[in-house]
Amino acid sequence: MPSSPSSPSSPSSPSSPPRDERERLARAALTRVFEPGDERGGRWIREIGPVELMRRLGGTDGSPQSLKGMTAARLAGYRLRASSADPGQDLVDVAAIGGRFVCPGDREWPSQLDDLGDARPIGLWVRGRSDLRLWALRSVALVGARACTPYGAHMAATLAAGLAERGWVVVSGAAFGVDGAAHRGALAAGGATMAVLACGVDVAYPRGHAELIGRIAEQGLVMGELPPSDHPTRTRFILRNRVIAALTRGTVVVEAEYRSGSLVTARNAQRLGRYTMGVPGPATSGLSAGVHELLRGEGVLVTDAAEICELVGEIGELAPVRNGPVLPRDLLDAASARVLEALPWTGVMDGRDVARSAGASTDETLGRLYELHSLGFVEREGDGWRLTSGRTRDGGARRGGT
Is position 165 within any domain? Predict the structure, then answer.
């Protein structure tokens, strides 16, 4: 291996890199050896350290027994990958596009990723000028169907813009559909957004989102577990979702079928103790069926950014109280409302009959009727009273009225 890190047992010399740099090189190399989320590899890193693990994988004197749970066939596969890893060149390549490699223990490392245990990322390749740890502290994931409906795209963009305006970072996967709409909504609001890729951060995938990914790298952050130039696969997309779930305070699913990667993100979020939310859709829409199933369980229904912030935010970040419109009748006192209710929908009623129906004295009823007359609720016709022409008891316009 061209840039193989040395053993931790070997003494440092003026020509050898410091220990933290050797660990960075080892972790960078291991991102080419192990697939994302490989818990076996994560356990070995935890038990013997990345430098020693690369020494055993890169040497010729190792044996299957040198690593717990390793078979000869698996060892051969790992060694084949390790032999072609060039972490020094990978670090140069990512720096050339304005990127960096962030490792556990770095100041910029988001510690919430440690909740993944041995499945946490070996490290993250990152593009963008912002601080990953600080942005992740106040972030929300917005995910959903690739083949989303116009409703789904509208809701994703609207929610993202609302979150961005409230100072939240929108995290998604840069895919077509809901992901792209979420990123664009945040960018349009001048807010912050992060894209977690299932490939190298120098690879624009999907190709149709090359411009969008470039904008995210300029205004926000693009990151992934895979080293530069690595390509996406189906399993890498699925495994990428655990990072989105762990990185953020909560996950919002906008549209998703029963079999959807977005639901994988939501289930990961639930297992990690994060908030899981869903945006309802038409009951007849197959693209909302998975979301509705989520809402039947532990998912929380949300319809706008304020409701999301109320759930994942700090004390005091409350959504406004939802009320229907205040009708003119709502402003009447109880006695006047009772007199108004006594009048028939059509026709004229004598004042005494109104008093009898309202259960009040004649004098009090007449006083209330004149008050209602001045407010426009009733009108007088001869010796009787009726509802104002074209108006209902609540003070609104009657159907077909003026």
Answer: yes
